[in-house]
Amino acid sequence: MTENATIRDVAREAGVSIATVSRVLNNLGGYTEATEKAVLQAIQTLNYHQNTLARSLKTQRSNLLGFLLPVAVTTSLDRILYAFEKEAAESGYQVLVCHSAETVEDIVKHINMLARFQIDGFVFCGHQPREALGETLHNKSAPCVLINSYQNDDSIPCIRVDDYAAAYASVEYLYRKGHRRFALLVGPADDATAGHARLCGYRQAIADHGLTLDDDLVFYGDFSYHGTLETAGRLVRQADRFTAVAAASDDMALAVLSQAHVQGIAVPGNFSIIGYDNVVTSEMGIPPLTTLAQSFEEMGRQAVEMLLEQIRTSQKPPSRLIPFDIVERGSVRELLEQGGGAIALGGPITG
What we know:
Layout: H1 7-14, H2 18-25, H3 33-46, H4 52-59, E1 64-70, H5 75-90, E2 94-100, H6 104-116, E3 121-125, H7 131-138, E4 144-147, E5 158-160, H8 163-176, E6 182-186, H9 194-208, E7 218-220, H10 229-236, E8 244-247, H11 250-262, E9 272-277, E10 290-294, H12 296-313, E11 320-321, E12 324-327, E13 334-338, E14 341-345
Parallel strand pairs: 1-2, 1-3, 3-4, 4-5, 5-11, 6-7, 6-8, 8-9, 9-10
Antiparallel strand pairs: 10-12, 13-14
Helix pairs in contact: 1-2, 1-3, 5-12, 6-7, 8-9, 10-11
């Protein structure tokens, strides 16, 4: 092992040029797998560490990306962050993570803190867009991408699922299974992004099939399990008024399953339910939860792609929509219309 080894020492040990070592360190390609292996072995042998400060002064880049997410981290956000960090590392970047409250003041404070680290770009995950936030972002020179959020004027590139279309598809799925009487469990009434879009999608699908939805069968939660338990209990007590529930998150759907168990109401015997997200715990419910799946890993990976494209070209990429799918498990029962009512067909769906 050489003390204070330099990039020149690594090149000599690996039998390659300094430029080749630099390309390997920065994941720029243009070298063989054998060359990469030789360089990495030389780095390990010499215990070489890059002088990141000197490197950033020379390249005018810190190779740091910022990731800002809400204080209450859900399973889905954790999956996005993991994929983001993995993709960033493979591209030669490290990630600074900040947890911020859902207030403009706290978000702006963390934006300014990240800016002091001279980050090359940053991501906002799950935060609602606000005018003050948008103005702050526009005043920063570092590129930015929104995940599961958006600005109405599309001034900041975003990557997300089309929540309106996905919610519409959830009701359409239930309709094809024979359900005609619905209850909805959605996010906060003041959520201008996912909550509002999902509610509108649910409502429109119901209306497009010529059905009506009683306003008192629309229940509002906070997307979480514990924060929705009381509301879920009130919903379950109305179980004789609907045959299916569309829930705007898996955690809220699982709260309904829990309350149904407490009240002795069978799912999907008495009513069916479809969730939204396909989080890990959705398949652990009793019964396992049928849900609308979105790829959180793909969001994290593509967010890095979008950031690096901005860093390299100084051009904003177009926003992207991630595909969604319905994962069938055991919480939706198929019904067959008979006159004015419906009868059950078979047992729970599994898939």
